[in-house]
Design brief:
4 helices; Cyclic Phosphodiesterase, Chain: A; alpha+beta
Length: about 200
């Protein structure tokens, strides 16, 4: 079972994510030089810990550890669009991910992530090197560096327009263990276990 631990976004935030994605769909980009692969806005989440392939018998151990998490619910706010890998706009050679930033609740997310890391490490899962609080809008694939430079500039210009866009706030009340099933049309996510924070 391919699994990960995440915070799902509210329907309101997901609707705003969809609107932001539309901002990048009308840039006139030729798919043969630069491809924008948009995530399904109705499945967007903040990954807390990717576990990978997990044998069925280990799932109960993961549930038990998650059930012991004692963090209280908290609020997060989303604002601004940016990209990875980080670079100043004039030095950008490639873009791999376009994301929406999190500007409130980052410390609480880090505390939650660290507790998840600690609990999962006791089950043998390796620790992540770093945690990045962001939500992916789309992934970028470059087929031709020379041919896609103008298109990168178009994407950068649109991100500059959206760098301070207010996306909204939501309460984080649940942490979920999710199963990811890969299909030709993209991944399908199902909840395996839901931990209510503060309970």
């Amino acid at each position: 079972m391919r699994t990960f631990i995440a915070v799902d976004l509210s329907e309101e935030i997901r609707a705003k994510i969809k609107e932001l994605q539309k901002q990048f769909m009308n840039l006139g980009i030729e798919q043969n030089t630069l491809k924008l692969k948009f995530v399904n806005p109705w499945q967007v989440h903040q990954t807390v810990k990717f576990l990978g392939e997990v044998p069925a018998e280990k799932v109960e151990d993961i549930k038990r550890e998650l059930s012991g998490i004692n963090q209280k619910p908290f609020e997060i706010a989303f604002k601004g669009v940016g990209f990875f890998p980080k670079a100043s706009p004039e030095k950008v050679r490639n873009i791999r991910v376009v994301w929406v930033g999190i500007v409130k609740g980052v410390e609480e997310l880090k505390v939650l992530q660290e507790e998840v890391e600690s609990r999962m490490s006791t089950l043998g899962f390796p620790r992540e090197r770093r945690f990045s609080a962001h939500v992916t809008l789309c992934r970028v694939k470059m087929f031709s560096r020379a041919g896609s430079r103008d298109e990168i500039v178009r994407v950068l210009d649109r991100m500059e327009e959206l760098k301070d866009v207010e996306v909204g706030t939501m309460h984080v009340e649940e942490l979920k263990l999710k199963k990811s099933t890969l299909t030709p049309k993209g991944a399908i996510y199902d909840d395996v276990y839901v931990k209510r924070l503060g309970e």
